[in-house]
Amino acid sequence: MIIVISKEHYDPLEPKIWLQLLENGLESIHIRKYDLTDMEVIQLINSIPMSFRNALVLHSHHHLANELGIKRLHFNRHLRDSVTKNGIKNYHLSCSVHDITEFNSLGSYWDYALLSPVYPSLSKPGYGVNKSVIPQLADRKNQQVSLVGLSGVNKDNIDNTLQMGFDAVALLGSIWNSENPLETFKACLRKILKHV
Protein backbone atom coordinates (compact mmCIF):
# COMPACT_ATOMS: atom_id res chain seq x y z
CA MET A 1 0.00 0.00 0.00
CA ILE A 2 1.08 3.54 -0.73
CA ILE A 3 -0.15 6.48 1.28
CA VAL A 4 0.34 10.04 0.07
CA ILE A 5 0.41 12.82 2.64
CA SER A 6 -0.82 16.23 1.52
CA LYS A 7 1.17 19.41 1.62
CA GLU A 8 0.87 21.14 4.96
CA HIS A 9 -0.35 24.49 3.66
CA TYR A 10 -3.14 25.28 1.26
CA ASP A 11 -2.41 24.98 -2.45
CA PRO A 12 -5.38 25.50 -4.79
CA LEU A 13 -3.90 23.08 -7.35
CA GLU A 14 -3.45 20.25 -4.89
CA PRO A 15 -6.98 18.72 -5.04
CA LYS A 16 -6.61 18.27 -8.80
CA ILE A 17 -3.43 16.25 -8.18
CA TRP A 18 -5.14 14.25 -5.42
CA LEU A 19 -7.85 13.30 -7.88
CA GLN A 20 -5.32 12.25 -10.52
CA LEU A 21 -3.53 10.06 -7.97
CA LEU A 22 -6.77 8.49 -6.75
CA GLU A 23 -7.92 7.80 -10.32
CA ASN A 24 -4.60 6.03 -10.93
CA GLY A 25 -4.67 3.64 -7.98
CA LEU A 26 -3.79 5.61 -4.86
CA GLU A 27 -5.56 3.91 -1.94
CA SER A 28 -5.16 6.60 0.68
CA ILE A 29 -4.41 10.30 0.92
CA HIS A 30 -3.82 11.95 4.27
CA ILE A 31 -5.21 15.49 4.44
CA ARG A 32 -3.05 17.44 6.88
CA LYS A 33 -4.26 21.01 6.85
CA TYR A 34 -4.09 22.09 10.47
CA ASP A 35 -4.18 25.81 9.68
CA LEU A 36 -7.40 25.82 7.61
CA THR A 37 -10.77 26.91 8.95
CA ASP A 38 -13.70 24.51 9.03
CA MET A 39 -15.20 26.17 5.96
CA GLU A 40 -11.92 25.91 4.04
CA VAL A 41 -11.65 22.20 4.88
CA ILE A 42 -15.25 21.63 3.80
CA GLN A 43 -14.60 23.37 0.46
CA LEU A 44 -11.39 21.41 -0.04
CA ILE A 45 -12.99 18.03 0.67
CA ASN A 46 -16.07 18.85 -1.40
CA SER A 47 -13.81 19.28 -4.43
CA ILE A 48 -13.22 15.49 -4.29
CA PRO A 49 -16.08 13.28 -5.58
CA MET A 50 -17.95 11.16 -3.03
CA SER A 51 -16.72 8.02 -4.80
CA PHE A 52 -13.21 8.76 -3.46
CA ARG A 53 -14.12 9.87 0.07
CA ASN A 54 -13.28 6.43 1.46
CA ALA A 55 -9.64 7.12 0.52
CA LEU A 56 -9.41 10.41 2.44
CA VAL A 57 -7.90 10.53 5.93
CA LEU A 58 -8.31 13.62 8.11
CA HIS A 59 -5.37 14.69 10.30
CA SER A 60 -7.39 17.52 11.83
CA HIS A 61 -10.95 18.82 11.81
CA HIS A 62 -12.11 15.36 12.91
CA HIS A 63 -15.47 16.81 13.97
CA LEU A 64 -16.27 17.35 10.25
CA ALA A 65 -15.67 13.73 9.23
CA ASN A 66 -19.25 12.51 9.43
CA GLU A 67 -20.64 15.54 7.59
CA LEU A 68 -18.06 15.06 4.82
CA GLY A 69 -18.52 11.31 4.46
CA ILE A 70 -15.03 10.51 5.72
CA LYS A 71 -14.48 7.35 7.75
CA ARG A 72 -10.72 7.55 8.33
CA LEU A 73 -8.99 9.64 11.00
CA HIS A 74 -5.32 10.15 11.80
CA PHE A 75 -3.88 11.23 15.14
CA ASN A 76 -0.46 12.73 15.73
CA ARG A 77 1.58 11.69 18.75
CA HIS A 78 0.10 14.50 20.88
CA LEU A 79 -3.50 13.36 20.35
CA ARG A 80 -2.86 9.63 19.96
CA ASP A 81 -2.93 8.83 23.67
CA SER A 82 -6.38 10.38 24.06
CA VAL A 83 -7.84 7.75 21.71
CA THR A 84 -9.16 4.57 23.29
CA LYS A 85 -10.67 1.47 21.77
CA ASN A 86 -14.20 2.61 22.58
CA GLY A 87 -13.58 6.33 22.12
CA ILE A 88 -14.05 6.56 18.37
CA LYS A 89 -16.37 4.02 16.80
CA ASN A 90 -17.17 3.48 13.13
CA TYR A 91 -13.88 4.97 11.93
CA HIS A 92 -10.63 3.50 10.68
CA LEU A 93 -7.81 4.92 12.79
CA SER A 94 -4.17 5.63 12.10
CA CYS A 95 -1.48 7.46 14.08
CA SER A 96 2.10 8.69 14.01
CA VAL A 97 4.91 7.18 16.08
CA HIS A 98 8.60 8.00 16.21
CA ASP A 99 10.13 4.87 17.66
CA ILE A 100 9.41 1.15 17.72
CA THR A 101 8.57 1.18 21.44
CA GLU A 102 5.66 3.54 20.77
CA PHE A 103 4.58 1.33 17.88
CA ASN A 104 4.75 -1.88 19.94
CA SER A 105 2.46 -0.33 22.58
CA LEU A 106 -0.38 0.43 20.11
CA GLY A 107 -3.67 -1.39 20.57
CA SER A 108 -5.26 -3.42 17.79
CA TYR A 109 -7.89 -0.73 17.17
CA TRP A 110 -5.27 1.16 15.15
CA ASP A 111 -5.24 0.11 11.49
CA TYR A 112 -1.72 1.37 10.88
CA ALA A 113 0.96 3.69 12.19
CA LEU A 114 3.35 5.97 10.35
CA LEU A 115 6.89 5.45 11.69
CA SER A 116 9.54 8.03 10.87
CA PRO A 117 12.21 8.95 9.99
CA VAL A 118 13.24 6.07 7.76
CA TYR A 119 15.59 8.14 5.55
CA PRO A 120 16.53 11.83 5.50
CA SER A 121 13.38 13.80 4.75
CA LEU A 122 12.72 15.20 1.29
CA SER A 123 10.33 17.84 2.65
CA LYS A 124 11.84 18.84 6.03
CA PRO A 125 15.51 19.77 5.65
CA GLY A 126 17.62 18.12 8.35
CA TYR A 127 14.94 15.71 9.59
CA GLY A 128 16.26 12.15 9.67
CA VAL A 129 19.82 13.08 8.72
CA ASN A 130 21.35 11.90 11.99
CA LYS A 131 18.63 9.51 13.08
CA SER A 132 16.73 6.66 11.47
CA VAL A 133 14.25 4.12 12.80
CA ILE A 134 15.77 1.38 10.62
CA PRO A 135 17.93 -0.11 13.42
CA GLN A 136 14.81 -0.40 15.60
CA LEU A 137 12.87 -2.60 13.17
CA ALA A 138 14.38 -5.78 14.60
CA ASP A 139 12.54 -4.99 17.85
CA ARG A 140 9.08 -4.96 16.26
CA LYS A 141 6.67 -7.06 18.33
CA ASN A 142 3.30 -5.62 17.28
CA GLN A 143 1.96 -7.58 14.31
CA GLN A 144 -1.67 -6.45 14.78
CA VAL A 145 -1.03 -2.94 13.46
CA SER A 146 0.43 -2.29 10.00
CA LEU A 147 3.75 -0.47 10.01
CA VAL A 148 4.13 2.31 7.42
CA GLY A 149 7.53 3.82 6.65
CA LEU A 150 7.67 7.60 6.27
CA SER A 151 10.39 10.15 5.50
CA GLY A 152 12.63 10.13 2.47
CA VAL A 153 10.80 7.26 0.78
CA ASN A 154 10.98 7.38 -3.02
CA LYS A 155 10.91 5.11 -6.06
CA ASP A 156 14.58 4.24 -5.63
CA ASN A 157 14.30 2.96 -2.06
CA ILE A 158 10.76 1.50 -1.85
CA ASP A 159 11.98 -2.05 -2.49
CA ASN A 160 14.54 -1.80 0.29
CA THR A 161 12.00 -0.19 2.64
CA LEU A 162 9.54 -3.06 2.24
CA GLN A 163 12.27 -5.69 2.49
CA MET A 164 13.34 -4.21 5.85
CA GLY A 165 9.94 -5.04 7.33
CA PHE A 166 7.60 -2.16 6.65
CA ASP A 167 4.12 -3.22 5.52
CA ALA A 168 3.57 -0.08 3.43
CA VAL A 169 5.09 3.30 2.63
CA ALA A 170 3.99 6.92 2.89
CA LEU A 171 5.11 9.50 0.33
CA LEU A 172 5.31 13.21 0.91
CA GLY A 173 8.37 15.04 -0.43
CA SER A 174 8.89 12.61 -3.30
CA ILE A 175 5.43 13.54 -4.61
CA TRP A 176 5.23 17.26 -3.85
CA ASN A 177 8.83 18.07 -4.83
CA SER A 178 8.35 16.30 -8.15
CA GLU A 179 7.79 18.15 -11.41
CA ASN A 180 5.24 15.45 -12.28
CA PRO A 181 3.57 14.05 -9.15
CA LEU A 182 1.41 11.61 -11.13
CA GLU A 183 4.35 10.01 -12.95
CA THR A 184 6.33 9.84 -9.71
CA PHE A 185 3.41 8.10 -8.03
CA LYS A 186 3.02 5.64 -10.93
CA ALA A 187 6.73 4.74 -10.71
CA CYS A 188 6.35 4.11 -6.96
CA LEU A 189 3.17 2.08 -7.50
CA ARG A 190 4.91 -0.18 -10.01
CA LYS A 191 7.55 -0.95 -7.36
CA ILE A 192 4.87 -1.69 -4.73
CA LEU A 193 2.96 -4.01 -7.04
CA LYS A 194 6.05 -6.21 -7.36
CA HIS A 195 5.77 -6.94 -3.63
CA VAL A 196 2.08 -7.85 -3.61
Question: Which features would summarize this protein structure in a list?
Answer:
single chain; 196 residues; alpha/beta; TIM Barrel; 8-stranded parallel β-sheet; 8 strands; 17% strand
Question: Brief overview, please?
Answer:
The protein is an alpha/beta fold.
Mean pLDDT: 91
Largest sheet: 8 strands, parallel
Q: How does CATH name the architecture?
A: Alpha-Beta Barrel
Q: Tell me the structural class.
A: alpha/beta
The number of distinct β-strands equals: 8
Widest β-sheet, arrangement of strands: 3-2-1-8-7-6-5-4
Q: Give the radius of gyration.
A: 16 Å
Distance between the termini: 9 Å
Element string (H = helix, E = strand): EHEHEHEHEHEEHEHH
- Under CATH at level 1, the class stands as Alpha Beta
The percentage helix is 25-40%
What is the 3D shape?
globular
CATH topology: TIM Barrel
Count of helical stretches: 8
Low-confidence stretches: none
Number of domains: 1
Strand content: 15-25%
Relevant CATH superfamily? Aldolase class I
Protein name: Thiamine phosphate synthase
Keywords: Thiamine biosynthesis
Pfam families: TMP-TENI
Domain Thiamine phosphate synthase/TenI: 14-175
Structure overview:
- This is Thiamine phosphate synthase.
- Keywords: Thiamine biosynthesis.
- InterPro entries: Aldolase_TIM, ThiamineP_synth_sf, ThiamineP_synth_TenI.
- Pathway: Cofactor biosynthesis; thiamine diphosphate biosynthesis.
- The chain has 196 residues and is of the alpha/beta class.
- Helices cover 28% and strands 17% of the residues.
- The chain has eight helices and eight strands.
